[in-house]
Amino acid sequence: MADKHGPIFTIKSGSKKTIILSNWEIAKECFTTNDLAVSTRPTKLVANENLSYNGAMFGFAPYGPYWRQIRKIVTLELLSNRRIEQLSHIRVSEVQASVKDLYSVWCNNNRNEEYVLVEMKNWFAKLIFNMVFRMLVGKRCFGFGGVGNNDDDKGNRCLEIIREFMNLLGVFTVGDVVPFVRWLDFGGHEKAMKKTAKELDEILDELLSEHRQKRRRSLDENDEKDFMDVMVSVFDDATRIDGFDADNVIKATTLAMITGATDTTTVTLTWAMCLLLRNPHTLRKAKEELHTQIGKERCILESDLSKLPYLQAIIKETLRLYPPSPLGVHREFTEDCILGGYQIEKGTRLITNLWKIHTDSCVWSDPLEFKPERFHTTHKNIDVKGHNFELLPFGSGRRVCPAISFGFQMVHFILANFLHSFEILNPSPELVDIDGTLGINHVKTTPLEILVKPCLIPNCYETM
Ligand code: HEM
Fold first, then answer.
1. Which ligand 1 atom lies nearest to the CA of residue 257?
2. Which of 37, 287, 400, 421 has the highest Cβ tally under 10 A?
3. Residue 329: CB within 6 Å of ligand 1?
4. CA-based angle 160:204:211, to the nearest 5?
5. What Cα–Cα distance (Å) separates residue 194 from each residue in 199, 201, 251?
6. 3-class DSSP state for residue 369?
7. Is there a contact between 402 and 79 (Cβ–Cβ < 8 Å)?
């Protein structure tokens, strides 16, 4: 449609107009000159009403004092460099535990030092869920009884509910465009949303009461605090925050962080692996960098990441070709304004066609080719922080992702560790398939099965 109708055009679904924006110059005009006018999210969507604690999840909240207050707390208290640094040991121990797990799978299945077949989408998801859960709520997702306890049934159910939640967030319901037939609930989506929201709320409720009890028991300032501890202490005496119940604000903010952090990073790692397997020369160069910089006799630390610029370029190139949300996250205009020479009415929704911007042949040579080298040559000054409008995987403007450095670092660290610890091969003579399904995020449809074999000295895995 963008090829046919140009870099800015309108579609109409029901009574709602939506602008589709598909080039970087207009994106720049949108997220600089007009940013304030387009910093709210559509709040009247069926999914928002049912899944976002009535708007208390700040990622879906309208632009205003409540959103500003929570975003400020999240940025200063939860995503500050100091807090991220304090939780470094969790990221390291979770990555090492997962690498060790994979090594055990290889040891248990292997007598001839051969490769073993593993499914990577699930491996990445479990690792990320455990890592994110420990940082946010102090315990693993897989192993609800505490770190080290492998309560996989509960973990799998939790992962399923969050996946269901993400799927439902991306669902198009008839009620969104023809509100007067909403009550008919075609497809049963609204019923499913209520059920998923209730199940998730029960999990978050249990976690919140544990955190409140812990706070009552110990007030030692030196105790390590997870994200939920911080929220509980910030809102200690408050019963209501901007009209919302304090408990709901804490649960909603924790959920916003869990859902923001897990799917996006899992999806990025999965696509990065697909691209590396389809481009063996890039994989070879990445391995060379790892072995020159780190060697085969020790594990990678977070402080090593700055020595791995090629791997960083691989992640940027993956985010260019496979932004987790190829159509951005919806916004809505709260004022009339002019964009690309056109008059835009207040109330119009905005979809930013990130994929189209990222593959514009006026900006990117061989736009559909996977060429990480471009970030060391022709595009070496382009970063992903939302100021270079040619590359916006984390969005831009006031509503830009608040966790850019953190998200980028997580992906970089996990990919570096996995590639450093294992030789990998495509099990099939055919290219790895890249079929995707588009919901709120663009996920690989089929499992990602690959062959792996350890490549460090055994001591590295044994001491992890
Ligand atoms: C590869 C990793 C990630 C990508 C590509 C990504 C991408 C995005 C995008 C495109 C948006 C919408 C921005 C806009 O409207 O302009 C967003 C918002 C958001 N992201 Fe991320 N994200 C990532 C990681 C994370 C992580 C690790 C967290 C949490 C720790 C997180 C939390 C959020 C939240 C809470 C919002 C909503 C912000 C608001 O509405 O004010 N994201 N992200």
1. 29
2. 421
3. yes
4. 135
5. 9, 10, 16
6. coil
7. yes
- What's the DSSP call for residue 363? T
Of 214, 235, 213, the closest CA to residue 224 belongs to 214
Nearest CA to ligand 1 atom 8: 394
Q: How far is the CA of 461 from the centre of ligand 1 (A)?
A: 33
For ligand 1, atom 30, name the residue with the nearest CA. 261
The burial of 228, by beta-carbon neighbours within 10 Å (0-12 exposed, 13-18 middle, 19 or more buried), is given as buried
Using the mean position of ligand 1's atoms as its centre, give its distance from the Cα of residue 140 in Å: 22
Determine the residue of 77, 129, 264 to mutate for testing ligand 1's pocket, defined as the one with the most ligand atoms within 8 A of the Cβ atom.
264
Q: Residue 204 is part of a domain; what is its CATH number? A: 1.10.630.10
Residues 264, 262: Cα–Cα separation, whole Å: 6
Complete DSSP assignment for 175-186: HHH-GGGGGG-G
DSSP 379-404: TTT--SSSSSTT--TT--GGGS-TTH
- Show pLDDT as tens, one digit a residue, over the chain (464 residues): 999 999 999 999 777 899 999 999 999 999 999 999 999 998 888 888 899 998 999 999 999 999 999 999 999 988 999 999 999 999 999 999 999 999 999 998 876 779 999 999 999 999 999 999 999 999 888 754 333 445 577 778 888 899 899 889 888 788 887 788 888 888 889 999 999 999 999 999 999 999 998 888 876 666 788 999 999 999 887 788 888 999 999 999 999 999 999 999 999 999 999 999 999 999 999 999 999 999 999 999 999 999 999 999 999 999 999 999 999 999 999 999 999 999 999 999 999 999 999 999 999 999 999 999 999 999 999 999 999 999 999 999 999 999 999 999 999 999 999 999 999 999 999 999 999 998 889 999 999 999 999 999 999 998 88
Q: Is 342 helix (H, G, I), strand (E, B) or coil?
A: strand
Is residue 395 within 8 A of residue 328, CB to CB? The reply is yes
Domain count, the chain: 1
Q: What range does the domain containing 335 cover?
A: 2-462
Q: Is the CB of 326 under 6 A from ligand 1?
A: no
